[in-house]
Amino acid sequence: MNKKVRILMLHGPNLNLLGKRLPDIYGPMSLDEINNCILNYAQEKGIQVDIHQTNSETMIIDLIHKAQGYDGIVLNPGAYTHTSYAIRDAIEAMGICTIEVHLSNIYAREPFRKKSAIAPVCIGQITGLGWYGYILAIAFLINSQGDKDAI
Ligand code: DQA
Q1: Which of 104, 112, 128, 144 has its CA 20 to 30 A from that of 81?
Q2: How far apart are CA 113 and CA 109, in angstroms?
Q3: Rounded distance, CA 108 to CA 131, Å?
Q4: What's residue 2's pLDDT?
């Protein structure tokens, strides 16, 4: 029998405020509602998705360090996207296929959001598709098992 695909899903700072925080930009759904959609999709596909939200850069790095054995990481680093070389280095060090996801289109907003310190060490980036970006990232990981050449 094939091994069950395991994905680590990390929501970074301020994403616990979804639903209340700038709904015109980030949408009306709470993080719990988004996570339920992710978990329903995971169940449909017969895969495991472990989900964490933290406001701490240190915690994100520690979770990435413990990600050995996962088939992929889906990460919304929030504002750490634009500043965190430490998260970037953790992803590079672990070598696990990682997809950066943003709810909003970071290229259509303030200039400081147009730069990602994280994207260069990710297999790809999904931005501006709302919560559905998480589903697309997971679908990619299921189909490719982290290898772009496999699809
Ligand atoms: C975000 C975009 C970031 O610029 C911002 O700091 C966030 C959310 C997004 O999902 O669109 O916190 O990552």
Answers
A1: 144
A2: 7
A3: 17
A4: 66
**Residue 72 to residue 29: CA distance in whole angstroms:** 25
Asked whether 38 and 9 are in contact (CB, 8 A), the reply is yes
Handedness of CA 3, 102, 121, 61 (dihedral sign): negative
Buried b (16+ CB within 10 A) or exposed e, 27-64: bebebeebbeebeebbeeeebebebebbeebeebbebb
**Ligand 1 within 6 A of 83 CB?**
no
Residue 42: left if φ>0, alpha if ψ -120 to 50, beta else—which one?
alpha
Q: For residue 1, is pLDDT > 60? A: no
Length of the chain: 151
Pocket test for ligand 1, best of 103, 109, 112 (most atoms within 8 A of CB): 103
Amino acid at 150: A
In terms of Cα–Cα distance, which of 6, 84, 90 is closest to 51? 6
